[in-house]
Structure to design on (708 residues):
C-alpha cells in the first residue's frame, strides 16, 4: 500500500533538524534578556551537618558581584511537593553537594570566581553512605516508584523452590548511574509585565510552572515556563530541578533577569541518579526448564531528604510463567543525594538481574537461552491475570535469532577464540509498560489551507514535533508540510511531561482527537473559511482514565556478540541486534534512533558507566564525562534495530506504544551473558570493567582453569 509522504508509518525528517545543526535552535540558557545577570551555585563541602557561618562580606566586594543568597537572606518558599526544591531555607546539609549559597554577578566568569572564593564554615556530623543488604536502617516501604506495592507474593515460593529439579540462586550488583544529558540543567528567569517567564531545561513545563507558583506564592496564570528545545534528559529533567528555582530566587532578589547553568560536576548531587541496587534472584524449574518458582528481592538506597524506591523487582512479576512468586523491595535511607528517574527506571536494573539469572537457568538446564524463554511464555499476565493486548516476545526472539544467525552458535562457553580474544554471544529479553496520561490539544484550520496544532508537549530530542505533525496530517487528510506544531510552553493546552515512553501516546491521542473533530467541522462547513479560521479542542481525560482491560507492554529481544581481551580484561561489543514489538511504528526514522540510542545506553550500563560512592567523603567520585564513561562511536561498531509491526487495538487511535526506553531494558544482561559465553565466567557486578574481568581471568588461571 502506497502512503503519502509524511503519513504515519513513513520516514519523515525531523522538523527542527536544520535549526539544531545550524545553531538556530535556542536552549534554556541561550536566551539572554536585556540586563541579564549570571548565578553560580555553591555546593556543600561536607557529607552531613550544618552551616555554621558564611562569610559573604569579602565576596560582595569582588568585581561584578551583585548578591550572595544564603539561608539567612534567601526568600522564604512555600512548602514544595518535592523536598529537594526547598533550597536555601535552613542551615542543614543532608548530603555533600546540597546547595548552601548562590552567587549572582554581572558575568558568568565573575559569578564563578566569587562562588569559588566564598568561605563557608561547617559543623560536620558523622555520615553513612554505604549500602548493604544487612544495613540496620533497611526497611520495607509501602510502595516502590510508580505506585507499585513493594511486596507481592503468589503461591508458596519456598515450597516450590525447594521442590524444583533445577535451582538458580544469584546475587547481582548494579552501581549507581547518572543521566548526564548533553545539555546540562539550566534556566533563565525574568519578570516581564508582571509575569514570571522562565526558560528551563525540562521534560515538562506544566510541572515547572506549578512548582514555581507554589514555591513563590504566585497564581499559575502569572507564570510561563518554556522548554522549546531540550538537549536530552533521560528522566533527570522529568521534575523541576534546583536550577530553575535558584534562577527565580535570584531574579526576584536583584530585580534583573538571571541565568543559572549547573556545572556538570555539580549535577550528580542535585538532579537525581539511578540508585544502586543489590539483587537476589532465585529461579526454580523442572528438568524441562519450565519455571515453577520466581523470587526477586532488591535492596536499594534513598536519601534522607525524600523517599524514592527503584521498582526493580516489578518486571519479574509479569515477565515469565511463575506459579509461585515473591518480589520484594527494601530501602536504606542514607546521607546520599536523592535518587530519581533514569531511563526505564526499575525495568533497566531489574531486567538486568532477571535476564542474567535466566541465562544461568539456561546453562543449568542445558537449554538454549532462546528456547528457555519460549518455554516460559505466559498465557496471561502473571501479576494481574489480565490478557495481554499483544505479546510478541516470542516473535522478537525467533526473528532476532534468525537475523543474528544464532543457530550457528556453539553453546559451549569459552571455546571460541581469536588470538588473545575470547568471543561469545548472548541474548536477553526486554519489556516496558504502556503508559498513557490525559492530555489536551487544539487544532486550528487557517483560511489559507494550513493548520496549527497546539499542545504542551516537550521534544527532548526524540522528534516529538515531527510525529505529532504526522498524526495531525493523517487525521486531517492534509499534506504534512501544511501542519505547524506549537509545543514546549505552559501557556499551551495542558499536557503531561515527556517521560515513561508515554509522550507520543498521550499527546498524540489528544492531537488525533482534536484534529478529527476539526476535520468533521471542516466537512460540515459551507463556503470559504472565515479569516479567523476554525478551531477544535479536545482532551482525553475520560479515555486515558479508563481502567485497562488488558495488560499492555512493549517487548523486545537483544542479541550481542562480544570479545574479551585476556591480556587487558577489556570487553568490546562486536555487534548487537535488537528486535522490538512496540505497537505501530509511527516514524521509522525517529523510532530507529530511539531504539538504537537505548541499546547504546545499555552498553554503557553493562561495560563503562558507573558512579562510585566515596565512603570517606560521601559523594560520587565520577562527576564529569572524563571519569563517567559513556559509550562513544568507537565502542559501537555494528548495531541494528528491527521491529514487528503490531496491530494492537487496545492502546490509542494510533496503535502506538513507547519506544524511548525499551531499547535499554535487557541490553546490559545480553552483554553480560555474552561475556559468560566467551569466558565461562559469570560476573554479577555491573559494569563489567576491565579490572573486574581481568581479576576473574587471573583467578581462574591461578586455579589451573577450573574457576567459574
Amino acid at each position: 500500500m502506497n502512503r503519502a509522504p509524511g503519513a504515519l508509518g513513513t520516514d519523515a525528517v525531523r522538523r527542527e533538524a536544520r535549526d539544531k545543526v545550524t545553531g538556530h535552535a535556542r536552549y534554556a540558557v541561550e536566551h539572554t534578556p536585556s540586563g541579564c545577570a549570571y548565578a553560580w551555585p555553591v555546593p556543600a563541602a561536607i557529607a552531613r551537618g550544618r552551616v555554621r557561618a558564611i562569610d559573604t562580606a569579602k565576596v560582595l566586594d569582588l568585581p561584578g558581584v551583585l548578591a550572595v543568597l544564603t539561608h539567612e537572606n534567601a526568600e522564604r518558599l512555600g512548602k514544595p511537593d518535592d523536598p529537594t526544591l526547598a533550597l536555601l531555607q535552613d542551615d542543614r546539609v543532608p548530603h555533600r553537594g546540597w546547595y548552601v549559597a548562590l552567587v549572582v554577578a554581572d558575568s558568568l566568569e565573575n559569578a564563578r570566581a566569587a562562588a569559588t572564593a566564598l568561605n563557608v564554615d561547617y559543623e560536620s556530623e558523622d555520615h553513612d553512605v554505604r549500602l548493604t543488604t544487612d544495613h540496620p536502617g533497611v526497611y520495607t516501604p509501602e510502595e516502590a516508584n510508580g505506585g507499585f506495592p513493594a511486596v507481592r507474593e503468589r503461591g508458596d515460593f519456598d515450597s516450590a523452590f525447594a521442590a524444583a529439579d533445577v535451582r538458580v540462586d544469584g546475587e547481582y550488583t548494579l552501581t549507581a548511574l547518572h543521566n548526564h544529558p548533553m545539555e546540562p540543567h539550566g534556566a533563565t528567569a525574568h519578570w516581564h509585565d508582571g509575569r514570571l517567564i522562565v526558560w528551563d531545561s525540562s521534560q515538562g513545563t506544566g510541572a515547572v510552572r506549578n512548582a514555581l507558583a507554589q514555591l513563590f506564592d504566585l497564581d499559575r496564570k502569572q507564570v510561563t515556563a518554556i522548554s522549546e528545545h531540550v538537549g536530552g534528559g533521560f528522566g533527570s529533567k522529568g521534575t523541576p530541578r534546583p536550577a530553575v528555582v535558584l534562577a527565580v530566587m535570584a531574579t526576584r532578589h536583584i530585580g534583573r533577569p538571571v541565568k543559572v547553568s549547573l556545572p556538570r560536576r555539580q549535577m550528580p548531587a542535585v538532579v537525581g541518579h539511578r540508585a544502586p541496587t543489590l539483587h537476589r534472584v532465585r529461579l526454580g524449574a523442572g528438568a524441562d526448564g519450565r519455571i515453577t518458582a520466581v523470587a526477586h528481592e532488591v535492596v536499594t538506597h534513598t536519601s534522607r531528604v525524600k523517599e524514592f524506591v527503584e521498582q526493580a523487582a516489578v518486571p519479574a512479576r509479569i515477565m515469565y510463567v511463575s506459579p509461585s512468586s515473591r518480589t520484594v523491595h527494601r530501602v536504606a535511607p542514607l546521607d546520599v543525594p536523592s535518587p530519581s528517574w533514569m531511563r526505564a527506571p526499575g525495568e533497566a536494573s531489574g531486567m538486568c538481574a532477571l535476564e542474567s539469572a535466566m541465562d544461568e537457568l539456561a546453562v543449568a538446564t542445558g537449554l538454549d537461552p532462546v528456547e528457555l524463554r519460549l518455554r516460559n511464555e505466559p498465557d496471561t499476565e502473571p501479576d494481574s491475570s489480565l490478557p495481554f493486548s499483544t505479546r510478541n516476545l516470542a516473535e522478537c526472539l525467533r526473528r532476532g535469532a534468525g537475523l543474528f544467525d544464532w543457530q550457528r552458535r556453539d553453546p559451549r562457553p569459552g571455546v571460541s577464540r581469536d588470538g588473545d580474544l575470547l568471543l561469545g554471544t548472548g541474548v536477553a529479553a526486554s519489556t516496558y509498560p504502556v503508559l498513557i496520561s490525559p492530555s489536551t490539544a487544539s487544532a486550528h484550520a487557517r483560511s489559507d489551507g494550513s493548520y496549527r496544532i497546539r499542545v504542551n508537549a516537550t521534544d527532548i530530542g526524540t522528534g516529538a514535533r515531527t510525529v505529532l505533525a504526522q498524526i495531525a496530517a493523517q487525521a486531517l487528510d492534509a499534506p504534512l508540510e501544511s501542519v505547524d506544531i506549537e509545543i514546549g510552553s505552559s501557556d499551551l493546552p495542558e499536557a503531561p511531561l515527556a517521560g515513561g515512553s508515554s509522550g507520543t501516546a498521550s499527546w498524540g491521542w489528544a492531537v488525533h482527537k482534536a484534529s478529527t473533530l476539526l476535520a468533521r467541522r471542516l466537512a460540515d462547513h459551507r463556503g470559504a473559511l472565515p479569516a479567523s479560521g476554525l478551531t477544535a479542542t479536545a482532551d482525553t481525560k475520560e479515555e486515558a482514565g479508563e481502567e485497562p482491560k488488558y495488560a499492555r507492554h512493549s517487548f523486545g529481544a537483544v542479541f550481542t556478540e562480544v570479545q574479551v581481551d585476556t591480556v587487558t580484561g577489556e570487553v568490546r561489543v562486536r555487534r548487537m541486534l535488537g528486535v522490538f514489538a512496540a505497537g505501530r511504528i509511527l516514524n521509522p526514522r525517529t523510532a530507529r534512533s530511539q531504539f538504537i540510542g537505548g541499546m547504546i545506553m545499555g552498553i554503557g550500563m553493562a561495560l563503562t558507566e558507573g558512579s562510585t560512592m566515596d565512603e570517606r567523603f560521601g559523594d560520587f567520585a565520577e562527576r564529569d564525562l572524563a571519569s563517567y564513561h559513556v559509550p562513544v562511536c568507537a565502542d559501537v561498531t555494528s548495531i541494528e534495530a528491527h521491529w514487528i509491526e503490531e496491530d494492537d487495538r487496545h492502546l490509542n487511535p494510533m496503535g502506538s506504544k513507547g519506544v524511548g526506553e525499551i531499547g535499554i531494558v535487557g541490553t546490559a544482561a545480553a552483554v553480560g551473558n555474552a561475556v559468560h559465553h566467551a569466558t565461562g565466567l559469570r560476573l554479577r557486578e555491573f559494569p563489567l570493567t576491565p579490572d573486574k574481568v581481568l581479576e576473574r581471568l587471573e583467578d581462574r588461571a591461578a586455579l589451573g582453569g577450573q574457576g567459574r
About this structure: The mean pLDDT is 97.
